[in-house]
Amino acid sequence: MPHYRSAPETSTSHMSPDMPRERMLASGTSVLSDAELMAVLLRSGTAGEPALQVSRRLLDLFRNDLAELARADWRRLASVDGIGPVKALSVLAALELGRRCRLQEVRQKQKITSSADAAALLEPLLRDLGHEEFWIILLNRANCLMDLRPISKGGISGTVVDPKLVFHEAIQFKASAVILGHNHPSGTVRPSDSDKQLTQKLKDVGKALEMPVLDHIIIAGSRFYSFADEGLL
């Protein structure tokens, strides 16, 4: 991939790199680095360290991985010198707003025509979680989105899914078809044997109810696995 040259600096180039709020006022959010945006959230540093330096230390703790930071417990953030509980909660709230914004944008595309469409709906909900959750996408006869519904929440290695709950939600919404989805916090995208068994069980129930299971999507970080694409449905 070619390296894109940075745009020429504007009249804000005289500003100190420790003045992210001023840079943001003058040039907008897109010109700020992750550390500078974090510094705007933190507002202040410590007696001997500006907010920007505190931000860099916080990001270093999470290897500059914002997804990993979003998954962290607030206590871990608060343990960083210069952060504390209030700033930790502010950071996590901002990341959650960003996640909800992505989800809202995806929801605006109503028709689900591929596994990529389904994964795009589930990814903002599941990719940053440190535990497993199981969701369903409810579709009408035209494969248009009716709703997304959480079914169960578990631990790091799994969650219990009751088929009665899955199809109770679908029947309540008068859905015509469902897509299953859950995440693998381990980062392993391929399904386990229990994932395959559960999918087959739900497929059989859906067939009996004339409410087909169109796919089962596994979200693992930025990757996804589709049972339908792999010929397992």
Q: What percent of residues are in strands? A: 15-25%
Any idea of the CATH class of the largest domain? Alpha Beta
By CATH, the architecture of the largest domain is named: 3-Layer(aba) Sandwich
Query: Which oligomerization state do the chains in this entry correspond to?
Result: single chain
Quick check: average pLDDT?
86
The proportion of residues forming helix, as a percent range, comes to: 40-55%
Strand order across the largest sheet: 2-1-3-4-5
Total domain units: 2
CATH fold title of the largest domain = Cytidine Deaminase, domain 2
Main structural class: alpha+beta
Query: Cα-atom Rg, whole angstroms?
Result: 22 Å
Structure notes:
By secondary structure, the protein is of the alpha+beta class. The chain has 2 domains: 11-103; 111-226, Cytidine Deaminase, domain 2 (3-Layer(aba) Sandwich). 43% of the residues lie in helices and 15% in strands. Strand 4 and strand 5 (223-226) form a beta hairpin. It is elongated, with a radius of gyration of 22 Å. The two termini are 37 Å apart. The model is unreliable at 1-16 (pLDDT under 50).
Brief descriptors of the model:
Cytidine Deaminase, domain 2; single chain; disordered N terminus; 233 residues; 2 domains; 9 helices; alpha+beta
Explain briefly what this protein structure is.
This protein has 233 residues and is α+β, with helices and mostly antiparallel strands.
